[in-house]
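Data card: per-record layout.
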Amino acid sequence: MSQPLINLIDISKSYDGSTILDELNLSVRENEFVTLLGPSGCGKTTTLRILGGFETPDKGRVLFDGRDITKMPPNRRMLNTVFQKYALFTHMNVADNIAFGLQIKKKSGNYIKDKIKYALKLVNLEGFEKRSVSSLSGGQQQRIAIARAIVNEPKVLLLDEPLGAMDLKLRQDMQYELIRLKNELGITFLYVTHDQEEALTMSDTIVVMNQGYIQQMGTPEEIYNEPQNAFVADFIGDSNIIDGCMIRDELVEILGAKFACVDKGFGCNKPVDVVIRPEDVDLIGPEEGTLSGVVSHIIFKGVHYEMEVMAGGFEWLVHSTDCFPVGTRVGIHVDPFDIQIMNKPESEDEEAIGTDE
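The structure for this 357-residue chain is written out next.
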């Protein structure tokens, strides 16, 4: 495997005595689309700002292509940042905004003109050179901000919640545009968002963060299907997170009922967290289920019905294409492979750090 392009080593950062990042380590390979995902205040934007050179870590090193750039100013890094607020110059037209960085680098007029044309074609805004920035829609302004970053030929593009201000349809369109640009340009993308769907849609690798720690790092499929702790399971998609007891390998007790599972190595009669995705809960006849209960709530979501089922004293969230009206008695069945077992954190500190340390 190739050497990482970016290495953040033991990065710590505090503001006013409050720890934002605590000895964070992260590697990013060339041409990878990596998303930092987590709730507000988890440290994801601080991580991006430290990489971009807008913040200096209290401790740790930032390596880029094997070179220590921890104290290098932003304008000397082979990185460009696209912010949520776009940061366009409203007194300049589109062409002047895109050309700004190239003019500072004293590039020739013809070079700049070619680059503007190339960048506008990439973001599907050909012919917009003379337009006023203030006359553009939010989506068009964001494309200009991306075009301005692209013309500087960065090896890495840092994107700090760039689609946050857009409506749903435009946000989805821009997600596909960013994937296309990444593939066409071969640029490494480091993307910050709190939107789980955005992360699952676009990323090669997702880094889930909470309270300054990395909770889990993996492909979208790994993060969704194999969460390593209850925080990840709860933050990525909907989950039923239930107290359980691991009776022995491949057998867990949930709400007084015994469920077969595929997990091993947790010991015998040990308290565990059990995670079951709502789409993995099968509703069958009440006498056929491992548990039985009653449908207490139902919402039609278009592609499926979202139901709440009270069973075993727990309100199960269930997604199904079959409709079970409120009041229907049902049985609950879950395939062994769809039951995820996790160790319970023994303290609040362990819960923040995650159980994969």
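Known properties of this structure: The chain has a mean pLDDT of 89. The CA atoms of residues 156 and 188 lie 5 Å apart.

See the next section for split statistics.
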